[in-house]
Amino acid sequence: MTPPPHRDAGAGRPISRKSLLKAAVAAGAAVPLLSSGTRALARDSAGQGRPLSVTPACDDGDGPTHDQIEGPYFKPDSPLRTNLVDAGMPGTALTVSGYVFGRHCSPLAGVLLDFWQADDAGSYDMAGYTLRGHQFTDARGAFSLTTIVPGLYPGRTRHLHVKAQAPGGPVLTSQLYFPGEPRNATDALFDAALLMNVRGAGNGKEGTFDFVLDVDGTPGPGDPTDPPTDPPSGAWAPGRSYAVGDRVGYQGGTYRCVQAHTSMAGWEPPHVSALWRRE
């Protein structure tokens, strides 16, 4: 018989897995570890013959707009880059790397990962794109981000924001957290399932995390959203934000976008089959 869910006797509501994990962290309990002493990564479970648990979404309460899960500090159209650090930027150096898998343990190539975060002082750049950028996983499903450790601001523990989307798949909006932070126990949004492995690396830090998206496995080259969205314009042009399903014309042909991106010279539709499919 399936045991009944844990319930909050005072409120009469089921206690969520997230609440249980947070309570465990607050009480000093350990989250799952490998024999090496690091937190388990999805890649360590990929060969065990069972589906992976998907990376949980994390509601973002950075401001009063709680219904917007990306929070008030998200901005679309971030630049394509893996290094978010500008010359002379203060802060502790941080690299974050890992892999993106589907539920059935297949690494996913071409996954869009859009990162944004606070600076060393705990502020977000809303005028420009400082500490914001997107990238795509490589053929192995791997990604790597160069940035700084985000600063603290009232009500929140340290965290990185991310949106992840396989071609044609749903968008995961989530956050990554740092182990050992005192505010992890008091942040209402903290989720221990989203803790990175973090270790010292010279004067900086290195973090690792594997995402598991809610898709069956390795997506095809397209799987565009249906129905497709209306294209921003009839003709392809550099410097524009295209979403999955957008249609454009280029040199007499019609192309459908199969991976969200900001266009640039050299990425014309006939040249990048990972981004455009001819119709």
Automatic annotation (TrEMBL):
Source species, domain of life: Bacteria
Protein name: Dioxygenase
Keywords: Dioxygenase, Hydrolase, Oxidoreductase
Domain Chitin-binding type-3: 233-279
Entry keyword Hydrolase: yes
A UniProt-annotated Pfam family: CBM_5_12
Gene3D superfamilies: Aromatic compound dioxygenase (2.60.130.10), Carbohydrate-binding module superfamily 5/12 (2.10.10.20)
Source species of the chain: Streptomyces lunalinharesii
Biased composition (Pro residues): 221-231
PROSITE patterns xrefs: TAT (PS51318)
GO MF annotations in UniProt: dioxygenase activity
Family: Belongs to the intradiol ring-cleavage dioxygenase family.
